[in-house]
Amino acid sequence: MSETPPNFTPRQTDRWLDPGPTNAQVIYVLYLAGLVIGISGIVGIVLAYMNRGKAGGFVESHYTWLIRTFWIGLLYALVSFVLMMVFIGFILMFAVAVWFIVRCIMGLQALGRGEPIKNPESWLI
Question: Which of the residue ranges 17-21, 27-31, 99-103, 110-114 would you say has the lowest mean pLDDT?
Answer without folding.
Answer: 17-21
